[in-house]
Amino acid sequence: MIRGWNSKRQKLVSYVLIQLLITGSCLASELPVDLSKHNIAIQSSFTGSTVVLFGVQTATDDAGSNIVAVLSGPLQNLVVRKKRKTVGIWLNRSEAVFENIPGYYAVASTGPIHKLLEREVLLLYQIGVNNVALDLAGAIEGRDYGPYREALIRHKVQQGLYFAEPAAVDFVQAGLFRVHFTFPSNVPPGTYRARVYEIQKGKIISEGVTELSIRKAGLEERIYQTAQDSPWLYGILAVVLALLSGWLAGAVFRRT
Which of 1, 114, 142, 153 has the greatest number of beta carbons closer than 10 A? Predict the structure, then answer.
């Protein structure tokens, strides 16, 4: 159950925080990271984009270190509905509302994440698509929300907005690394945050953060803002435009 999963996650997070305070390993140093670009404009010709995240390892000893990068955002609400066949017709019979979940989520790492960090740490930092906290609104005690969570992740993966497997981290030279993140044409606009962790012997020794902004531009931006700020006006304009298109199509066909 999702409620049970969240309760377990909270206990694990509390345990990890206590361990970090005891060991003092929470004082990770800053990892220098940056992006090839910090702004992406969505226009009518937008078919997707790619950004390169790069940074430099801080570890200088012979033991070396591993890199894990997480890029996610923006937060959004999503409704997952379950259909059942009723009198020969498929109808929505139940639903689960998820609040403040990332609209996009991708991970890159130098190896299997479950071998680089313990399960508790993966849950704490939400590393890996199965470790992302997907919070429910108005959850009912005793109800199994597992299938809804699985359906949400599966749908996001099919849309190209969630990535089930980590991408590769390329090392260039002298500790310099880079990661390629791709965005589909249906990427949601908003602010994205990239978190990069340097790992050594199962512990995070440094962490870097940088942000990316994806915004609609031109006419798309005006339409998007109208839909967000004045949905009633957007609805009226959409109906009027549909009527005009139908009238214009009918006039053309009559002439031909």
Answer: 153
